[in-house]
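Ticket #4471: complex job returned nothing on first submit. Input attached below:
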Amino acid sequence: KQEVTQIPAALSVPEGENLVLNCSFTDSAIYNLQWFRQDPGKGLTSLLLIQSSQREQTSGRLNASLDKSSGRSTLYIAASQPGDSATYLCAGGTSYGKLTFGQGTILTVHP
Amino acid sequence: DTGVSQDPRHKITKRGQNVTFRCDPISEHNRLYWYRQTLGQGPEFLTYFQNEAQLEKSRLLSDRFSAERPKGSFSTLEIQRTEQGDSAMYLCASSLFGRSNTGELFFGEGSRLTVL
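Support reply: We reran it on our side without changes. The output follows.
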């Protein structure tokens, strides 16, 4: 059974800092790894998807890496902004789309 | 195409009542998923459909819960005899499963249920 853990549970940083969110998973036979953003009371917005054969994906100021052998993924956010404040969720996916989520990291970027 | 649509966005009901949520996936997406998210937790898988066929149900989906996707387009999730423990955000997602399957899921805004 896949289990996903995210560290830290909460993070508060000043604007402009680069930061790393961590995600670990127990079953290395994942099909993909997805990172999502969730604003309070809202649904999930997909940020990055990394296939099991890939090592990383980049979109703008975001970079996600995947190391299946160690069961880890990281989300790197460069030059953080107050608008980045949200909960970030990672999820390990199977080939048929079933996702197992971590509990999320609550990020606060203060001006 | 406006993405995955869920209705209603918020539902407040009394314990024992029945509630139904509707999800309209992205058009041409053949897979549809339901997840439940309680406060401070990540979403948990409930069930998924490929077209109209329900292919997997989580043990979280008790016999008071039923999901349908009658024509392979929109889906409904019904909760009968609601309990306070059913209070949560119910999230719907869809994906396109095919030869070049990336497995990427697209989520709706969710339906928040409060059982008094």
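Chain A touches chain B at residues 4, 31-32, 34, 36, 41-46, 49, 51, 89, 91, 93-104 (CB under 8 Å). Closing as resolved unless it happens again.
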